[in-house]
Task: structure prediction
Amino acid sequence: MAEEQELDLVEIAPQAEPPVCKVIDYKKFLYDQKRRQKEIKANASKVIVKEIRFGPQTDDHDFQFKLNHAKGFLNEGAKVKAYVFFKGRSIVFSEQGEVLLLKFAQELEEFGKVENLPTLEGKRMTMMIGPKKKK
Result:
């Protein structure tokens, strides 16, 4: 039948009992498969990470400003990586940085959940906050 129509006999589901075959143009079949794979890849969710930087002595107004940005990022579905950068000898105030990040996490409790608690890596103390799942 395939030769009569000048098309190809393509095995669609070899694991089925009996195997499923179709009489189609094989090149078109491959093209459609690639296009479907590309669509699936395009629709896959991409994790977006937004960074917010603090200093160890960040003022209250700056803190509120950055907090509002973080709320917006979490509402959009992005993760927030908040970090305190210690310059020079300010590493002495690492406790202040940890308190600042914990306060930040507490303020964002209703918008997201803490994925990583504050950890000191070199001159940076970082913390990750992920968005809450929408119901």
